[in-house]
Amino acid sequence: MCAAPFFSDFPNMDISRRQVLRSAATLGALIASMRAGLLPGIAEASELYIEKQPFAEDHVRKLAEALAQKPWEDVRIAMPPGWDKLTYDQYRDIRFNPDKSFWKGEQHQFSFDLFHSGFLFTAPVDIHVVEDGQTARINYSPELFNFGPQAPKTDGKTDMHYAGLRLRYPINSKEYNDEFLVFQGASYFRGVGKGLLYGLSARGLAIDTGQPNGEEFPMFRAFWVRKPDPAATTIVVEALLDSPSITGAYKFSIKPGEDTQMDVELVLFPRRDIAHLGVAPMTSMFLFDSLSRLVGDFRPAVHDSDGLMMQTGAGEWLWRPLSNRKTLQVSAFMDMSPRGFGLMQRKRNYRDFLDLESRYERRPSLWAEPIGDWGPGAVELYEIPTMLETNDNIVAFWQPKDPLKQGQSYSYVYRLHWCADWPSGVDLPVGRTVFSGAGVDPNYSANPPSYDPDLRLYIVEFAGGDLDGDILADVTASAGVISNVHAAKNDVDKTTRLSFEHNVNGADIAELRAVIKRGDKKVSETWLYRWTRS
Fold it and tell me: What pLDDT score was predicted for residue 293?
């Protein structure tokens, strides 16, 4: 049986499928229409949609606000025999039937699929459709899925709800509805722009990341998918977030394309005071590149993202190459109302990775653009040690300076861009970092030739912006000595190359900072890097 209801506005959700079937004839007609690929709208009498009710603009907000007044309840499904310990291979053998995609073939061209529960996804997620001012929950139906030979069979009694949804739209060609956004697992979601493959993820919220008491992972308990108008190029999805510490109402207005854009509007209702909160969190993978190499590998680099990019409230552009050290690295970039930040993938050539399977050069960048005044706080970056490219070990988000207080509400609005290098139609006014590398600097004049383990040579190359004319490099370090600073044109790659040496002089950690200037004006990003001995 399904779990108890997690909000009071809906009638008791502990209902078996048999209780909502009015007659065998009605069910037969439903299955026949589904097999034909014709899913009825919620205005029609159908056992596919249940709990029909009016949908107001503040519907999800009211649910979140009311839910915050109650203690948190764990509502995971008691899985039927054979489903409680599903393996990855068994789970991936359950596939949504593409002929059953909701709204498939309609004029607006949007459609969506559902994910079955199981494996890591046993918390019930309810999916609702909103149409003509009415909303209705999609009843669980195994008829929507194809079960392969490795998948267990359903028992026909348990309402297994769903585990999330996948949105589709023809972003690569008019002949095929590509998947461009997936909501599945806690509050995670992933998107792509035209020609890209899934890579890093976003989250609805981060709580207590990196704290001694452990991280809390809020979950989207329910979604409301609004049916688009016939000429629409944007689809709206709303979501209810819940966790022991907080509830939230989310509205995602999503426009797929070359740069898939998501306008995110959220209202949070804390159940307790929260000192460590991450807004617009992003999670990615970084194993190694030319600056950070921990493992022996034939590939030049392995990562979904290679740097944290930020535009401060004062307008300065920052670039912080990611690293994979032997110890956890936490960085905080203090600011007042930032203009944007993101985890970006700048390497776009196959030869940057030489990986025929993963194709990391086609992974998206994710840029968050705050809308409105976010006040004081910091963009926080967590770099977690890993030896495996299957582990997401990079986390970044905005941490407000002031804690959230129980009993109050908090609103944020921002735009996410799932893009290749940079949001389309937006010019970056300064030179950006296109390569960072470092290594030992041999002393060939010694006899025999040798090298100092405390001395490293850094190469940073910038492209774009206005780097012509009289320029100079400003390079500093928090520890050690900077020497042999040189900036000049690289006529081979049509870039500007900055080189310098850094002697750590026995230090265990040093923060490096470099920028190209013309007079007092910064004409490149400010390149930041943390060197550590371990």
Answer: 76
- What confidence score (pLDDT) does residue 298 get? 92
Residue 65 phi/psi, 5-degree rounding, is -65, -45
- Cα Rg of the chain (Å, integer): 26
Distances, alpha carbon 412 to alpha carbons 202, 264, 359, 409, 457, in Å: 15, 8, 34, 10, 43
Q: Is 58 left (phi over 0), alpha (psi -120 to 50) or beta?
A: alpha
Listed residue (91, 87, 145, 92) closest to 114, CA to CA: 145
**Exposed e or buried b per residue across 445-460, where buried means at least 16 C-beta atoms within 10 angstroms of its C-beta:** eeeeeeeeeebbbbbb
Nearest to 63 by CA among 203, 205, 267: 267
Amino acid (1-letter code) at residue 340: G
Question: How far apart are alpha carbons 254 and 14 in whole angstroms?
Answer: 33
Task: Provide the pLDDT for residue 24.
Answer: 32
Q: What is the 3-state secondary structure (H, E, C) of 81-105?
A: CCCCCCCHHHHCCEEECHHHCECCC
What is the model's pLDDT at position 445? Answer: 67
How crowded is residue 305: how many other Cβ atoms within 10 Å of its Cβ? 27
What's at 221, amino acid-wise?
R
Terminus-to-terminus CA distance in the chain, angstroms? 52
Low-confidence stretches of the chain (pLDDT < 70) are 1-40, 42-46, 294, 445
Closest CA to 4 of 71, 81, 49, 56: 71
Query: Which pLDDT belongs to residue 153?
Result: 86
CA distance linking residue 155 with residue 153, whole number of Å = 7
Kindly state the tokens that stand for 130: 């909103």
Give the E-state strand segments of 232-295 in sequence order: 235-242, 246-255, 260-270, 277-284, 286-288
Q: Which position has the token pair 């000595």? A: 481
Q: Which of 213, 207, 188, 208 is nearest to 198 (CA)?
A: 188
Using CA of residue 137, residue 139, residue 140, residue 143, what is the dihedral sign? negative
> Residue 77's pLDDT is what?
80
How far, in Å, CA of 252 to CA of 235, rounded? Answer: 8
- For residue 32, the 8-state DSSP code is H
CB burial of 101-116 (b: ≥16 within 10 Å; e: otherwise) equals: bbbbeeebbbbbbbbb
**CA–centroid distance for 344 within its chain:** 11
Strands 286-288 and 526-532: what pairing?
unpaired
Tokens 């600097």 sit on residue: 441
Nearest 10 degrees: Cα torsion 393, 394, 400, 402 = 30
